[in-house]
Amino acid sequence: ALQEVERRRGRGAAVGPGETVFIAGSFTQVGGVPRAGLARVAADGSLDEAFVPAVGIAPGLRDLVALPDGGCYVFETGAMGATVRRLDASGQLAAGFATIQGPFSGG
User: Which parts of the chain register pLDDT below 70?
Assistant: First the structure.
């Protein structure tokens, strides 16, 4: 499936638990399966279909952090400032984590 990612500009990758990798970029599908710019793949490159992101990734993706529980944080910037989201292991917005919106400052 990874070989079949619609060829677009990549934005980020993060190694997850159990030999998985999160990939983010300007793609709309992985291996023919719809994925709006964010997917989790296995070490062999096959799509992890258990991870179905609740949100697409904007062109302003700045960072992607994999979590030990199979979820991830995504940090994006855009016209409205910065946004930090936490997705759980299934790709849904994590319960109990409020989406954080900026502007942020500092170094």
Answer: 1-11, 56, 58-60, 103-107
Q: What is the pLDDT of residue 77?
A: 78
The conformational region for residue 38 under phi > 0 = left, psi -120 to 50 = alpha, else beta, is beta
Q: What is the DSSP string of 77-101?
A: EETTEEEEEEE-TTSSBPTT-PPEE
Q: Are 39 and 46 in contact (CB under 8 A)?
A: no
Task: State residue 5's pLDDT score.
Answer: 47
- Reported as type and span, the H/E element at residue 61 is strand 61-66
